[in-house]
Amino acid sequence: MIGSSLSLPLWAAPEKKFWDVIVIGSGVAGLSAACSALQAGSQRVLILEKGPIVGGHSILSTGYVAGVDRKRQEKLGITDSPELMLQNMLDIGGHINDYELAKIVCYQSEKTIYWLEKLGIKWDERIFQTVAGLHPRSHITSPVRAGYDYVMTLLRYALKNGAILKLNSKVVDLISEKGTVKGALVEERSGIVRRYLGKAVVLATGGFTANVELRSKYDPRLGREFPTTANPFDSIFDGATGDGLLMALKLGAATKDAEYVQLIPFWGGRLLDYVGGDIYVNTVGMRFVNEGGSWKEVSEAILRQPEKEIWAITDSQSQKGASLGVKLMNGVIKKANTVEEMATQMKVPKKILKETLETYNQNAERGIDPFFGKTQFTQTIDQPPYYFGKERLGVHFCCGGIKFNSKAEVINSSGDIIPGLLVCGEASGGPHGHDRMGGVALMSAFVFGRIAGKQALLRSHLPCL
After folding, report:
1. Distances (CA, A) of 172 to 152, 215, 358, 456
2. Model pTM above 0.70
């Protein structure tokens, strides 16, 4: 925090440009905020991204977006409602969610699906039950590049309508005067630090999954042995270091549910992000969990396995994501023409694996799972070639973060708002509770990004220059 005089250190080069809205982060939350502010009439929107490319974790996402969409769902014989979505979200979140925030996500999900459509998103007409989604309501543009589609569609709209994007621009601090946020200090690639002033600042900086020290503070189990799903091989830039949270804490912000950090199996044998086309078996070839359960249920079941690793199995019928080619090339995924061949490569008893698949397929045809309670089956798994690979857990998502209200305003430890500061996306905490429902991370980012952008434009703490 900069002092009440707004004095700058000697190494900070001033810049006079004044902005209506300063958005920190270029994932879908931040870009939604920028688009919303522009639609509300803003003429000066600045998007700051510390990385060399846009998109954050959003652009890497498999991209399922949970939302009520009765127009499409009814054509497929699916009954849904905001009330049911909210109940599902609360059940996954352990009913410790901020009820009002969760309700906003669910009740605004349908109009948000159509808002994205108007911006240029072209939804697949199929509706999926994503993993940990509990109900078929998840949308996608493409199984190959959905996250990219969302980021680039929002970015095109924002830039076309006058927003300015600055890459390699790391916000190192927020400018605050008498408790009101009035801008940001930004370190550019050259090392020069500039001052940007605005009526409001939107924190859309993502979570803190890549900050081992910070995540271990909130959940001591999550040491360095767990990679992040965005950077599983420690080979690429991962900007989820909790910058927004750390800056907000310096201003007295409160947190909500920051101790709940989600683990999922992602960069191993799992090829699907919807329920009903794959199964998980342990190292002796037996199922051990409902593959359609919450991520918390699945991850804790994996952690109970002796080696904390499993096998994910699918076949030729399933709709696979973009990672298939890469995983085949690097040997993470293997193929087999028979169950016996697959068992040999997995080094599990052939008889057990064959019985596991036969039993599963019989139950899938009947639509029941007497052992683990799975309810969603899109297919049997009996059409070779089989695709399979080992899976381990990675740190995926921060279910909590900066506390905020229904207007996306940041709340301090006394329960008051911090004027001029808003938050959206994974940097925030409240809607999800102790676990995130499948597909709702992106929906929450879209919904509160829109709210933050509109609300940011309503803030007016500095006179226009």
Report:
1. 26, 20, 57, 21
2. yes
